[in-house]
């Protein structure tokens, strides 16, 4: 496989009101749309996009479909790129959740805690990597863009950079921002850009 550029583009702002949002299907708000537009212009300046994939949740899918149609780009919509399933916690106030489970994030990532009615981190990681492996084998061209969620991006960064989830999480991709990597099969990925919308 020839080397290619991979951009992990996180969806823009949504009206979450301080709630934990996983599978809850919210659209981008006006700011979120502006953020995505700015980042899309920026990443196309770095290298023209050749193929796309997206989470099916509308905060990712609607933007991806629009850009794919506008640019005549191949697009794969895959359920495996959806955000972590928080089960009964989805839609809960983060403040309330932190009072009940102060270290819930680190415990979930370590496999010590599964949200009630949700998925374990092992299940999440397995489906994300399965979807990514399948897409990347069929994706075309030298610049491939995945429009997805913060948790998905962290899981992929951990895998591609060969580090722990907790370390990858320190490389925060803000809503509407992106991480861009250079990838050559058989070699460690190289992180080229980590940008917030409007950085450049």
TrEMBL record:
The keyword Hydrolase applies. It holds the Pfam family His_Phos_1. GO terms for molecular function: alpha-ribazole phosphatase activity. It is an enzyme of class 3 (hydrolase). SMART domains: PGAM (SM00855). GO terms for cellular component: cytoplasm. SUPFAM superfamilies: Phosphoglycerate mutase-like (SSF53254). InterPro entries: His_Pase_superF_clade-1, His_PPase_superfam, PGM_Phosphatase. It comes from Aquitalea magnusonii. Its EC number is 3.1.3.73. CDD domains: HP_PGM_like. It comes from the Bacteria. This is Alpha-ribazole-5'-phosphate phosphatase. PANTHER family: BROAD-SPECIFICITY PHOSPHATASE YOR283W-RELATED, HISTIDINE PHOSPHATASE FAMILY PROTEIN-RELATED. Keywords: Hydrolase.
